[in-house]
Design goal:
With about 325 residues, this protein is of the alpha/beta class. Helix content is about 50%, strand content about 10%. α4 (about 65-80) crosses α5, α4 (about 65-80) packs across α11 (about 285-290) and α5 packs antiparallel against α12 (about 315-320).
Length: about 325
């Protein structure tokens, strides 16, 4: 039984989701555990030497320097307060402090892909560089929202890559949702405007708009995203209701750098971290959430459409420590 199991009374669907999460984080937790085990090998008390080893283990697990320092400081404070702390207690304390670091970031309370009742259509603007799984994430989002009983529409505003429009079209057909698109090279803001108008006219619950993923010219990207926002607000003044940044968790600290670049370019309100099932760098989730104080809303832990999960910090940390 995990440290946080007492917090949950999972139904069958939630148990299956937890099993998927456990499996998806296998590479991360195996690597993480080997480093933690090495840090405390042969030690009976959490002293300065153990904390130094633990600090190195966390950094090597892509938790990031700043986040690691914060976690170690919290553990040091507990050691100082309790005077004596055995290494047998370290796993539990480390789990608690990881959750506390994640708690410091603002959280969004979404369960089962619910949407705010007073926002219809709910407009999600999706940003991220090419190759991080942005289009796939949009497709999975569409599937999960539709599966939750929502009327979903897509907007293909990444008009600079023909493949982007084609890929999103394939996802719309696979999921069975409508898409608004134009030919390659069209004005992205025009596509966004038409998408919002169509979503309003057709009574959609949620509209997910794809955007171009180019960081080589940040000024141009900023101008483009701002233009998209302005035209959307001509139809719905308080939209977009969410700007979702998609990051590839398998790139480790490069994902942190992408988050830095995009948060400087636009007002990111939530994060989706993909491809965690294929990497040992899952610790980057803690680094990103702690550093940018932006909620991690979704994580990708597999290729299936249902493998895009709503992020739960307790379940995530529990899975890191649930090595069988």
């Amino acid at each position: 039984m995990g440290l946080f199991d007492k917090l949950f009374k999972r139904n069958k669907v939630q148990e299956e989701a937890k099993e998927t999460l456990d499996k998806g984080l296998e590479k991360t937790k195996e690597s993480f555990f080997s480093k933690i085990t090495k840090a405390v090998a042969g030690k009976s008390v959490v002293d300065a030497a153990v904390l130094d080893e633990l600090e190195e283990a966390l950094i090597m697990s892509d938790v990031g320097v700043g986040t690691t320092v914060e976690i170690i400081k919290r553990i040091e404070d507990r050691v100082a307060k309790d005077k004596y702390l055995g290494t047998s207690e370290l796993n539990s304390i480390l789990q608690e402090e990881m959750v506390n670091v994640l708690t410091d970031a603002p959280s969004l309370e979404y369960q089962n892909f619910d949407l705010p009742a007073d926002k219809k259509p709910y407009i999600i603007l999706v940003v991220g560089v090419n190759g991080v799984g942005k289009t796939t994430t949009i497709g999975k989002l569409a599937y999960n929202f539709k599966n939750a009983g929502k009327k979903v529409m897509l907007g293909a505003a990444d008009t600079f890559r023909a493949a982007a429009v084609d890929q999103l079209t394939i996802w719309s057909e696979r999921v069975g949702v409508e898409i608004v698109k134009k030919e390659m090279g069209s004005d992205p803001a025009s596509v966004a405007f038409d998408s919002v108008n169509s979503a309003v006219a057709k009574g959609a619950d949620v509209l997910i708009i794809d955007t171009a993923g180019r960081l080589h010219n940040k000024a141009y990207l900023m101008d483009e995203l701002n233009k998209i926002k302005r035209v959307i607000q001509k139809v719905i003044p308080d939209a977009p209701h969410e700007v979702l940044l998609v990051l590839d968790g398998s790139t480790g600290q490069n994902a942190v750098e992408q988050a830095k670049q995009f948060t400087q370019t636009t007002d990111v309100t939530s994060l989706a971290i993909t491809k965690l099932d294929g990497t040992a760098k899952g610790g980057v989730v803690l680094a990103i959430a702690h550093q940018f104080k932006i909620p991690v809303k979704y994580i990708g832990v597999g290729e299936q459409m249902q493998n895009l999960q709503i992020f739960n910090k307790y379940e995530f940390v529990d899975s890191l420590f649930s090595l069988k």
